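Internal QA ticket QA-208
Title: Verify multi-chain structure generation after dependency bump
Assignee: T.L.

Test input:
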Amino acid sequence: NAGVMQNPRHLVRRRGQEARLRCSPMKGHSHVYWYRQLPEEGLKFMVYLQKENIIDESGMPKERFSAEFPKEGPSILRIQQVVRGDSAAYFCASSDGTSPQETQYFGPGTRLLVL
Amino acid sequence: AQSVAQPEDQVNVAEGNPLTVKCTYSVSGNPYLFWYVQYPNRGLQFLLKYITGDNLVKGSYGFEAEFNKSQTSFHLKKPSALVSDSALYFCAVRDRNTGGFKTIFGAGTRLFVKA
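Actual output:
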């Protein structure tokens, strides 16, 4: 039973380029969460999605960031026109969405470096 | 507003000694509480959670945590530390009264276990 998969594991972009981060949840999980971890800091919630729906995007920056979780395929976190401050580790977690007490299971993360 | 405080950036302990990693929380209602561990360049691994019932929760790798409602704390403990326990530990909270799935993480505590 594969865990949460994220790719790429490492991504290097130049300022102004686009970054696409992918997350495949655990089998049977329909809920996906994205978090950002800046160096030497904790995780900050960004967005919570179900299939084809954004449930809570209160942690997403207002500009340049978007997320989707289509009916088929992985969840995508997209960052347009990246800046150096976007350099961070981005983690995806998944759950089966049955209740708030459930455990979220995390992927290995994508480490984004903006040059 | 929900928040989690991990008052120690770093905890040092000798192998074989007991360890404690502290966590206090603030939520408007009753909490779900979680501990995760992160090894270098890896995602977060779930250790344990408090939902309801017995205040002492046992988790993976010999870890346990005690929920103290009056002190709003959820300290992580282990009777005998191992060098391999050295990692970054995160406490997290969800407010069950809001019914939401949004998880708030503490800033993390780095544990060093010396041989």
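Spot checks passed. Chain A has a mean pLDDT of 92.
Status: verified.
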